[in-house]
Backbone:
């Protein structure tokens, strides 16, 4: 006679994130940078965590602008392997043109990100915080296209 497992799969983190966003109020979502900081945040009761490019850059001793999509995907895989709460990822400018944004969303979602945010900064990103604090942004029409493409790319 074989034993039947009574384990129930945990809810998908994308569903948990949607539920959090549907509720009124503010979502406390601390910035983390590795699996240990993510586990600490979860153990303290946070319901969501965020991986920022600046935090990953500091943790890996790299300038944020030099981080690749694969650097982020690797970090996402290692973090989501040890937590049961949603991870939101800062994908900077989406790693390029709309086709790159599409790929970035697919890669990060496949790695385990429950959510991704992109910004309107140019790519490759300038190291503005080390220089003159000037931020170069793409035209609004290009940003709208990037958001449209990101929505089209997501699977969940």
Residues:
């Amino acid at each position: 006679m074989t034993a039947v497992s009574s384990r129930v799969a945990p809810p998908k983190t994308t569903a948990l994130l949607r539920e959090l966003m549907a509720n009124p109020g503010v979502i406390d979502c601390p910035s983390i940078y590795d699996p240990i900081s993510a586990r600490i945040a979860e153990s303290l009761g946070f319901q969501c965590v965020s991986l920022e490019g600046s935090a990953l850059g500091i943790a890996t001793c790299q300038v944020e602008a030099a981080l690749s999509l694969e650097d982020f995907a690797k970090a996402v895989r290692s973090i989501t392997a040890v937590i049961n709460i949603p991870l939101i990822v800062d994908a900077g400018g989406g790693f390029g043109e709309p086709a790159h944004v599409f790929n970035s969303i697919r890669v990060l979602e496949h790695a385990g990100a429950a959510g991704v945010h992109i910004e309107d900064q140019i790519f490759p990103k300038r190291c503005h915080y080390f220089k003159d604090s000037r931020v170069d942004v793409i035209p609004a029409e290009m940003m709208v296209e990037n958001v449209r493409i990101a929505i089209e790319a997501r699977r969940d």
Q: What stands out?
A: The first strand starts at residue 31 and ends at 32. The chain is about 45% helix and 10% strand. The CA atoms of residues 20 and 27 lie 7 Å apart.
